[in-house]
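Continuing the series of single-chain predictions for the mutant panel. This is the parent chain; the variants come on the following pages.
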Amino acid sequence: MKPTLVILAGGLASRYGGIKQMETIGPSGEAILDYSVFDAARSGFGKVIFVINQTIENDFKEKYTHRFKGKIAIDFVLQTLDDLPKGFTPPKEREKPWGTGHAVRAVRNLVHEPFLVINADDFYGLDAFQTIGKYLLSNPQHYAMYAYQLGNTLSQHGTVSRGLCFAENGFLTRIEENTSIRRIGQSIVSDQNTQLDPNTPVSMNFWALKPDVFPVIEQLFTNFMKSSGDSLSAEFYIPTVIQHVIDNNLQKIKILTGNAIWFGMTYQSDRKITKIAINQLINQEIYPSDLWNH
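Parent structure:
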């Protein structure tokens, strides 16, 4: 059974100041997610599910409903504030979705095979998709992630948050969220540590999971709503689920790595660098100049 790609495209990018999920960065109108879909299609994935929000629903569906015809099957699901466990209702003043863990929960009735979860606005690279695609097609016993080196995932235009990964025998043991990570001279520092090693593996939300994770998500999200359901800003994140899975010996998470280069658009000023990086990959013939009409 071919794995499914789940693309989280429902976030509201406060630091970017726009709808970066559909921001054009390729020469033929491609957004970053176009390259993810292209790489998934040539890495053995059979379907893509986009998790979107109501604000962009019409524009997103208009752009992408027929874009990948003949390349890969697609589906859409809305991440809505009122998609909650029984007995809960959202605060009237709440505007933001409930976070990445809630976004993954939104596909619980659509996914019945191994799947990969990614962000719409992160460029992960062909090697990452090929590595995870091969792993998922091997009928693996464990979950997995593709890790990047911290030093290769920073922005030149502001601070970032990253999940630092700690491992034992090739399996993830702990994720430590660090915020406000930035370069100062030759050093990398965060609000949690005085200095960080640039070679530290980090998670960029590239998670290979199986459907048995959905009951776990439901349990944890219910607990989250009991403690934080009245909050206007609290969010339920994927790493919370991952750490619970590890701590309770529910699953092992294999750490996979390779030569993939990550880049993304945290800030508007990152867009120019991203476009340059894409053009370099096109010049190297890793991608055609027009993804869907070549």
